[in-house]
Structure formats: structure tokens, C-alpha cells
Amino acid sequence: MTLFIIAITVIISLIALSRIDVFDKMKFNAYLIHHNNEWYRFLSYGLIHADWMHLFINMFVLYSFGSIVEELFRYHFDMKAYVYFILLYIGGIGFSTLFDFGKYKNDIHYNAVGASGAVSAIVFSSIILYPAGKIFLFMIPIGIPSPLFGLIYLVYSAFMARRGTGNIGHSAHFWGAIFGVVFTIAIKPEFFTLFWEQLF
Q: Which domains does the chain have, with CATH numbers?
């Protein structure tokens, strides 16, 4: 499922990068959603990216953590795992922009693209499912315990979103991560107990 999502996202992103009309039609724009009822943009923006590097980073992280979530979902849910994985990913795309929708629904100049919200949901689902894991960042040879990384990531994303500078969707990162945690626990509340048992 992870590879299927990556393949679809890469294909559509490459098309959008070569065709500005497709890119403009798919990007997240709260004003057009609110005033023109273009609700599909809540999902379509997650299939396109700003450039090659943006696409590569998101898909690399998705590949790295998606396989973990898929494997553990299959262990706990059997065939339902694929449904839950899709709901986790699509839900992350949609939920992660709700805050920005409310904030920018009257600002025609605000746009966003990329699967970062969904990828954050996958990463944080993996943290709940496997808190004993470690996360390795580029150029840093020492792994960071995944719960500690998650905490730092949330604080940093919330801080940067509050500052509101730059062209990175920190708010989407934050709310995508929150969705990943809540969704994972909601589909099986025992995950929360297992998380604390493995954590301590």
C-alpha cells in the first residue's frame, strides 16, 4: 500500500510540476474552497509537491515509516489493515489543513501543497505502535528515541506555526501528527496501553 501511494503521488506530482494548470487546480487554497466550494482541494493538494526535493523528502519518509505501520497494522488487523492504512493517510491529508482553512479562508493568496500532513500522521502512528524505535536524521549517526523525537517535533512545529514565517506548512505537520496519534489509538485503544508499557 505504501508503494502504491508513493507511485501515484510521484506520477501526479511530476505531471503537476510540468503543467501549471494542473498544479493550480489541485493546490490547497482555502479561499477557493470556501468561496467556490472546491472541496476536493482538501485532498488533491496532497498529491502534488512544490519541487523535486519536496517530493523526494516526503516520499522517502513515507517509505521509511509506512512499511512499519503497514506491518504492525497487518499483525493486529489482518485484511482490515489496508483500510485503516488508507484512512490514516487520507485522514492525515484532510485533517492537517483544517486549521489553515479556518485561518486563511478569506485570503486568496495562501496556498499549500504536499503530503507532509499525511506523512506526519504515518510517522506518529509508527511512534505509537513502536515506541522502542529510534529515528535517524540526515547526517546524524545517533538514533533519537522516537517518543523524544515526536515531542521535539510537535513543540517545534507548534512554535514555527505560531511564528508564521517561511513557506513550510508547520501547522499541517503538527495537526497531521496529532491525527496520526488519535486515529491509531481510536482504532484500537489497547495501543495506548502498549505504548506506555513499552515506553517505561
A: 2-199 (1.20.1540.10)
